[in-house]
Amino acid sequence: RASRSKTEVALLFVDLDGFKAVNDTLGHDVGDGVLTQSAKRLLECVRETDTVARLGGDEFVIILERQDVSRAQTVGERVVNNLSKPFVFQEGTATIGASVGIAFYPQNGRTENELINAADKAMYEVKKATKGAVGLA
């Protein structure tokens, strides 16, 4: 769709930092709650026209249509901030973080897989340097 309309699209790859520790210490029910609440918090960071999807495990993607680098970085920072707030459950409080990689169509890829791979690589570079930040492909 982006190629037909000649619009720039940003794909954000979001990885939850510290999620395994939540499952290990508070249990899988709390872990499932963190995933559900994380999805809701991600939706709070974007417009109704944007897309949020869980890839699996503790990984999500966000697709922002008609976005420039500055706006995409702002959304990425909002994601990091929203997900770093504590999640409160009856069983206890869970604290996680998020590392975000951003890739752009068509600069970093022309297919879904190319964009996901570029954003994933940018996210891993963030995790290697410091968690809880945003990186660009």
The gist of it:
With 137 residues, this protein is α+β, with helices and mostly antiparallel strands. The chain is 45% helix and 29% strand.
The tally of beta strands, per DSSP, is 7
Task: Provide the number of structural domains.
Answer: 1
Q: Beta-strand percentage?
A: 25-35%
CATH architecture: 2-Layer Sandwich
CATH class: Alpha Beta
The biggest sheet amounts to:
5 strands, mixed
How confident is the prediction overall: mean pLDDT? Answer: 94
Helix/strand/pairing category: alpha+beta
Strand order of the largest sheet: 2-3-1-6-7
The number of helical elements comes to: 5
Report the CATH superfamily. Reverse transcriptase/Diguanylate cyclase domain
| Unreliable stretches covering 5 or more consecutive residues | none
Q: What name does CATH use for the topology? A: Alpha-Beta Plaits
Head-to-tail CA distance between termini: 21 Å
Nearest-angstrom radius of gyration? 15 Å
Please characterize this protein's 3D structure.
This protein has helices spanning 2-5, 19-26, 28-44, 69-83, 112-129; strands at 9-17, 51-56, 59-65, 87-89, 92-94, 97-105, 134-136. The chain has a single domain (2-136), classed as 2-Layer Sandwich (Alpha-Beta Plaits). The chain has a five-stranded mixed sheet. Strands 4-5 form a two-stranded antiparallel ribbon. By secondary structure, the protein is α+β, with helices and mostly antiparallel strands. The protein is globular and about 45 Å long. The chain contains five helices and seven strands. A hairpin with a 2-residue loop joins β4 and β5. The two termini are 21 Å apart.
